[in-house]
Amino acid sequence: MLKSMIYSGAAALGLALCAPASAATVELGLAIDDSGSISSANFLLQKSGYVAALSDPTVLPLDGSVAIGVVKFSSSVVNVFTTQQITSANIGALIAALNGMTQSGGSTNIAGAIATLTTQITTNAFVSDRQVIDVSTDGENNVGNLALARSNALSAGIDQINCLGIGAGANCGAVQAGAGSFSVNATFGNFEASLRRKIQIEVSGGVPEPATWAMMILGFAVVGGALRRRRVGLPQLV
């Protein structure tokens, strides 16, 4: 949001920019856990979930309204896909990048992933209404200072840091931050369905009311979803 305000202010003052910035509704930075706590089979399930979800235009519109960047994290952070506005012309490149991911193993550097995506989102040429970081993990941060990374992200203009926690070991309460942010508790078995709905919410800009959460739960049950509430005061899919 801060970046949008800066560009809007520049336009209002009639300041000339060297090149016009491209407009998107939302910039979404995806952080994917590829640490050693995830088995190779479950990493493939996670990867295939991202590929299937982001290949679906009902989840990810192809009209340029969404700009997406992707990193994966273990002990270190690796860039998977540099932020681009997604259209029919480059969706193939995004899917190819996701399909090309290999698992690094190692520790769980969520702090580094948030810091990397914060820099990518706040320094690119896109102007958007909302800037969102979306972390999926089966564990909790054990490299770097997560609280500082969250604080720095919000101060830099990131609107939300949302979390998709996989299994009982995920600590989304330490990840989630920002007004309207939310977390989803999932399993590897229902990961794709959980991810699809989560990204749809992030792209649309809404936070479901309790009744909507209930309908989502029923939908996930069809594909084997089993979700739990873990923290009072922060929206979570139960």
Automatic annotation (TrEMBL):
Annotated ranges, domain VWFA: 27-169
Cleavable signal peptide: 1-23
Source superkingdom: Bacteria
Keywords: Signal
Parts forming coiled coils: none
SUPFAM superfamilies hit by this protein: vWA-like
NCBIfam families from the UniProt entry: PEP_CTERM, PEPxxWA-CTERM
Name of the molecule in the record: VWFA domain-containing protein
Organism from which the protein derives: Sphingomonas taxi
Lineage: Bacteria, Pseudomonadati, Pseudomonadota, Alphaproteobacteria, Sphingomonadales
